[in-house]
Amino acid sequence: MTSHESGGDPAGAKASRPRALADLPSAWRPLKALQKRMDDDIAAAYTALHIEGVRPRFSMAVMFLQDGPLSISDLAQRCGVTQSAMSQSVAAMRSAGLVESESGEDARSRVVSLTSRGNAVAPQVWSEWYATEAAIDEVAAEAGVALDEVVARMRAALDRESFTERLLRLMRAAHE
Predict the structure, then answer these.
(1) Can you name the residues that pair with 103 across neighbouring β-strands?
(2) Rounded Cα–Cα distance for residues 86 and 92 (Å)
(3) Which pLDDT belongs to residue 60?
(4) CA 119 to chain centre
(5) CA atoms within 13 A of residue 80's CA, in its CB half-sphere
(6) Structural domain boundaries of the chain?
(7) What is the Rg, in whole angstroms, of the alpha carbon atoms belonging to the chain?
(8) Dihedral sign of CA atoms 78, 84, 89, 92 in order
(9) Distance (Å, rounded) from C-alpha 10 to C-alpha 145?
(10) Which CATH number does 50-122 carry?
(11) What is the mean pLDDT of the segment spanning 97-118?
(12) Rounded to whole angstroms, how far apart are CA atoms 86 and 109?
């Protein structure tokens, strides 16, 4: 069993510990790199389609705002991000000319709506969303994996033993 598998310190010695992110074992890094690659390719598609100023992280916000103005809080909830993250995205989308915002019901809230430019690109963003999902399915099929099946199997495994329980078990075993 490797130190990665046991949850222990490599060779148990501080001197031999990795000193850089690239040297640390990571199951997440390849997944994050794959997602970044696909996000970069989505951004490249926007550029090829002459959709200026739209970033992949804006997609859901632009799509949901097409139905009408929303508070930053409501938009964050619909997009599954924190209010702080949405505030940052709204500021960037405002700079790109996609949205405008005004004071909400109280001084602390802001209501966001699409500009005419935002409304003009929204249909392309919707199209990109569904094309992205189809492309992911195509790549997964070509790779011979079903991502939804992998996720379902991992969830079932976590139902049998939670991630917390696994972490604690492995950390305790490394110190025995």
Answers:
(1) 110
(2) 10
(3) 94
(4) 24
(5) 3
(6) 50-122
(7) 22
(8) positive
(9) 32
(10) 1.10.10.10
(11) 89
(12) 13
Q: Which residues pair with 102 in a beta bridge?
A: 111
Q: For 44-87, write each residue's pLDDT tens digit.
A: 999 999 988 899 889 999 999 999 999 999 999 999 999 999 99
Q: For the chain, what's the residue count? A: 176
**DSSP strands (E only) in the chain:** 70-71, 99-103, 110-114
Token code pair at residue 86: 């949405």
Neighbours of 119 (CB within 10 A): 14
Q: How far apart are CA 129 and CA 83, in angstroms?
A: 22
- 144 Ramachandran zone, left/alpha/beta (phi>0; psi -120 to 50): left
User: With contact defined as beta carbons under 8 Å apart, do 6 and 169 qualify?
Assistant: no
CA 89 to chain centre: 13
